[in-house]
Amino acid sequence: MRPETDGGSGGPDGAAAAEKGLSAPRQPSGEGAAGSGAATADPAPEPEATQSRADGASNGESAPPKKRRRRRGRRAGRQGERTGAPKPSAQPHNGTPPASRAPADTLYAALDLGTNNCRLLIARRSSDGFNVVDAYSRIVRLGEGLARTGALSEAAMTRAIDALKICADKMRRRGVVRARTIATAACRTASNSDAFIESVKSQTGLSLEIVSTEDEARLAVAGCAPLLDPGCTSALVFDIGGGSTELIWVRMPGDDRRGRPVIGDWISLPCGVVTLAEHHGGVDVPAELYDRMVAEVGEQLTPFHERIRAMEAGEGGFHLLGTSGTVTTIAGVHLGLERYDRTRVDGVWISPGDVQRVTQSLLAMDYGKRAAHPCVGGERADLVLAGCAIFEAIARAWPAERLRVADRGLREGILMSLIEADARRGRRRRRRRRRNAHRASEAPAQVN
Q1: Would the CA dihedral through 275, 276, 277, 281 be positive or negative?
Q2: Stated pTM of the model
């Protein structure tokens, strides 16, 4: 069975990436939502202070403004110690870091609280992207019963907060500096999500950010971009979640000098494995019930399918790229793994015929056999066929010769957006320093 425990390794939920760094995804053009708000902006330039240093006037009588601020800060800290006022927190503030500098050993964290899973990645920047140093995943089923009641249940919130406490502890112990902690479909739709977010804040210190469906789609593409085939003209990236399914039509860069994929169109369906399984039932799934699920999802896909068909008429050479527990489970079953192995699943190509054979074999199993399967497990046994139905509806709408499997997604997209935001700030700082140094060198010498 795929491990789902603290620090364990596993498929889309897992942490096997801890042993192997991931290549840097390239962001789609127009990227900004993913990185926006992920970190504080640089402080405004201080021309007076720079000029003072250039003139050699930084003596004790006339300290530059930046030094005066530092002194005031140290005095405020000493006063705080005397008065018992809290010191500035060293904890990450969910994408709003306490400092603007990002040294090479800076640790970044990406947390994704979905409708079904709670996942965390902690990573350090590397020359080709990042290296994961810790990870965590747990199935919490935050969206359990949401479709029926419209609200998060007490039991589901308790499970999620228990998992988030472990994530917060990992981030604290690792010394994470940059972080973004997001919540997706369940919190977007629940009537009591505000109270839940407040409860998470008070019990764990984490500030969850409820991301839009567009932001979720962009992050999914950013996380999976390295697996897109540059030889194709386009690709359909899909992320089958617990409460929603994102589909993103991506155009390959072609002669784009930066070589980044471009999002042509996207949609978020209010349909995921949890909502579909709760609506139709996921324990006993006869063929007729499975067909109804496929038909239901197919109807929801029709408007998006029509838009893509009109936009891409006459173009060929595309492939599917799937990221979700459903897709990685299908790949694991297809490969005949005795235990889920991310290194064998992530990036593997499979054909529609392979998917069809796996789906038929899962339909032939009863709940007990699915639960006993090493690549499915008890926690997914009632969800996996709903996921297969969503995937089959997608594959029917966009028949492709190849499907690439991604055991990566939102968290990887978050990490890359944080790292790239720091890199952009570093480049701006260097340009500012060069500009200021150039101005200082051209300034006329001061005559005493």
Answers
A1: positive
A2: 0.71
